[in-house]
Design brief:
The complex is a heterodimer.
Chain A (H helix, E strand, L loop, with lengths): L1 H40 L7 H12 L9 H20 L1 H7 L12 H24 L1 H6 L2 H20 L9 H18 L7 H15 L6 H8 L8
Chain B lengths: L16 H15 L2 H11 L5 H5 L1 H6 L6 H16 L1 H9 L7 H11 L7 H4 L7 H14 L5 H12 L10 H19 L14 E4 L4 H4 L1 H13 L4 E2 L11 H4 L1 H17 L4 E4 L3 H14 L7 E4 H11 L9 E7 L3 H4 L6 H10 E5 L24 H8 L1 H10 L3 E3 L3 H13 L6 E3 L1 H8 L14 H4 L1
Parallel strand pairs in B: 1-2, 1-3, 3-4, 5-6, 5-7, 7-8
Classes of the chains: A mainly alpha, B alpha/beta.
Chain lengths: 233, 461
């Protein structure tokens, strides 16, 4: 078991992290390039930067979130807070990163980390429940939407049980292995699933705005390609 | 299965329809800026369902097909399959999605159930603009011949017809109408107004929704009264005088051609600015797309008539009688001018200056509810029941809650839709008018505009 754990948190973790960081950087660079090129092609390059920045900030710090579907929104917010803080500030994670990166930042106190883990896991379950019971969310949900949530729940649950061997109904070493492997899988999947929004979210409002800024010749060029230049309406 | 939609289509060639659809999609992606949007949205869409809560159509229908995210997924599915590497790889692995005529039929039906009001974008944590995806889907469909007949016929007359406007009004008839309105205003309101035609070198060229010449005399008289009272330098071009732009609803190609006609008329008359009448989509298409298609920063500036009136009121050039309107008045924000935050407070300031009992709807402004006829659907008479009973249900409730008997809707499309909404929701006591209809009743004409009202012997009896 120990050999498997070492493999999972050693080479496999490094591989998953490398792929995750590399492809997230590529996704970000690609999005920035595409948006910059689109802006350059636009017939009107005056973008409402202020309102784009305001809309982006509004959702990066969603204080107003609870105005719509309060329970679902609160659960979603809580879950995002946990998913963002725990990977970087949990003492065990920082220790793991020490060999790879300079780790100068503080770690979460154990009681705070446990509370956040449990709250995040409860929030994931609430989001899953909402997906199963809210008509609109149920209609929209795909296998990926549910699978991603279940994977994150597994990461959180196994991590919690692994760090509390005395109270865990499961073998702590096995839980640690499950935690690391599921965590590695989440890292690997991040750039290739909707989890990629973790890196693209600062650009999404801008993308929606740039889309409305058409190239001046867009219609005429489309007409030429489709051989419709002289076609009546 | 024959291609069938709930709206009328002109005869449709369905030969190789999926192939032609994909060719059109590819051409549009290559030459527009929708590619980066789809690339981002296709990756990040969380399908959380927040948009469902804010969409008035879904709220009334409770039909999953009306969830904005669900509708966008129809196009995103095609995009992912045919225009991404992952889609190509999945297809190699087998069992991939295949675009069929039936699927295109579904898409064609769904995108015209959306009013393109873009309210859902406000509540999407990822800022996905489902209205834009609807807009794009409609353009692709238009390139394979799928456009509601009502929109296409009107645009054909505007671009290829003899009259160059969507209501097929000959220039001479427009001028006759203006002369009639001058007389009517003198007789009814005791004011001399003018409609200058083809004056070269004017500051503004005026483009109302052309249907106003047929249906909204008070709105036009109000517009002319403000412009006359303030001594504006303005004119109407006889070569092109229609502000309507259905291109915004179904094709960027048409949008381009129509705004280019406006800019061309301004150039012909050696004028400086485009002045758009009371119409939401006409204002948005001119304001945001004349710059795009007609020279960027060098393009003529676009002003909406409500902005003009508001400035005139603020600067003291226009005098209005306080409390001129006794009845309770409320205001409907047309999505195309309010969603971006462009025109929200200006009309309210004007209304507060002339109404004794003005009340706002809730929510209002950027977060307003669509009248239910947005995105060109108001012109499709065959879907009236859907438009008023589903699309307009939330708006009807909002109007009812205000207790107003006068509903100001400064948009030709919203006015038509709201009259039908009121009719179909038992709100017959509500009068739907334009903003300048009320301004006309409140204006204090400067001396040069005043005339003696002729005596009406019938009335005197």
């Amino acid at each position: 078991m120990d050999a498997w754990i070492e493999l999972a948190r050693g080479p496999l973790f490094r591989l998953a992290l490398t792929i995750c960081v590399l492809f997230l950087a590529l996704r970000l660079a690609n999005a920035v390039y595409l948006l910059a090129a689109a802006w350059w092609r636009a017939g009107d390059r005056d973008l409402p930067w202020k309102s784009v920045a305001q809309a982006t900030a509004r959702w990066l710090f969603p204080y107003h979130l609870l105005t719509v579907r309060p329970l679902y929104s609160a659960a979603s917010f809580l879950f995002h807070v946990g998913i963002l803080l725990l990977p970087f500030f949990l003492a065990g994670h920082v220790a793991l990163l020490q060999g790879i990166l300079p780790t100068w930042w503080p770690t979460l106190a154990p009681i705070l980390a446990d509370t956040l883990t449990l709250l995040s896991a409860a929030a994931v379950m609430a989001v899953l429940l909402a997906r199963a019971t809210t008509a609109s969310a149920q209609a929209l949900s795909t296998v990926q939407d549910v699978a991603v949530l279940l994977l994150l729940l597994l990461v959180l649950g196994a991590g919690f049980f692994a760090s509390h061997p005395a109270t865990s109904p499961f073998d702590a070493r096995a839980m640690l292995l499950v935690h690391i492997l599921s965590g590695n899988l989440a890292l690997l999947l991040t750039p290739f699933t909707k989890l990629v929004h973790c890196i693209l979210v600062p650009l999404t409002q801008l993308a929606s705005e740039v889309g409305w800024h058409f190239p001046a010749e867009s219609g005429r060029h489309v007409a030429v390609v489709l051989n419709k230049e002289n076609e009546p309406v | 299965m024959a291609f069938q939609c709930s709206y009328y289509l002109e005869p449709l060639d369905t030969t190789n329809l999926p192939r032609r659809f994909l060719d059109a999609f590819a051409a549009i992606l290559a030459h527009s800026n929708y590619g980066p949007v789809l690339d981002t949205v296709a990756r990040i869409s969380a399908r959380c369902g927040r948009c469902a809560v804010t969409c008035p159509v879904y709220q009334a229908s409770q039909d999953p097909r009306d969830i904005p995210c669900m509708r966008s997924e129809l196009l995103l599915t095609i995009y992912r399959r045919y225009f991404t590497l992952a889609g190509a790889l999945k297809a190699r692995a087998g069992n991939a999605f295949t675009l069929t005529e039936a699927y295109i039929n579904t898409l064609a039906e769904e995108v015209y159930r959306c009013t393109a009001c873009r309210r859902c974008k406000l509540e999407c944590p990822l800022g996905i603009d489902h209205g834009m995806i609807t807009h794009l889907a409609r353009w692709i469909l238009a390139e394979v011949g799928i456009v509601p007949k009502a929109l296409r016929v009107a645009t054909r007359e505007q671009l290829d017809g003899k009259t160059h406007n969507t209501s097929a009004i000959p220039a001479a008839a427009m001028q006759d109408t203006c002369e009639f309105l001058v007389e009517d205003c003198r007789d009814t309101y005791g004011m001399n107004i003018s409609f200058p035609i083809d004056v070269e070198g004017a500051e503004y060229v005026f483009f109302p929704a052309v249907s106003d010449y047929l249906l909204e005399p008070d709105t036009l008289m109000g517009n002319a009264a403000v412009l006359t009272a303030t001594g504006a330098s303005w004119t109407i071009g006889s070569h092109y005088f229609d502000g309507i732009n259905y291109g915004l609803f179904y094709s960027d190609r048409m949008l381009d051609r129509i705004v280019s006609k406006e800019a061309e008329e301004v150039r012909r008359l050696k004028a400086q600015k485009v002045l758009i009448g009371e119409c939401g989509h006409a204002s948005r298409s001119a304001k945001f797309f004349i710059k795009t298609f007609c020279g960027g920063r060098a393009a003529p500036e676009v002003v909406n008539i409500m902005e003009y009136t508001w400035h005139a009121l603020r600067s003291g050039k226009l005098e209005l009688r306080p409390n001129a309107i006794d009845a309770r008045v409320t205001y409907h924000d047309p999505c195309n001018i309010a969603r971006s935050g462009w025109i929200i407070d200006q009309p309210r300031e004007i209304l507060r200056a002339i109404c004794a009992d003005y009340v706002d709807m809730t929510p209002r402004g950027k977060e307003n509810y669509c009248c239910g006829g947005g995105g060109g659907t108001v012109s499709i008479d065959e879907i009236r029941e859907f438009r008023t009973k589903i699309g307009g249900a939330t708006k009807a409730e909002q109007i009812r809650r205000t207790g107003a008997t006068i509903l100001v809707a400064p948009c030709a499309n919203c006015k038509k839709q709201l009259r039908e909404v009121c009719e179909d929701h038992g709100l017959d006591h509500v009068q739907v008018v334009g903003l300048h209809d009320l301004v006309l009743k409140a204006i204090i004409p400067p001396p040069h505009m005043r005339v003696e009202k002729p005596t009406d012997p019938e009335k005197d009896k």
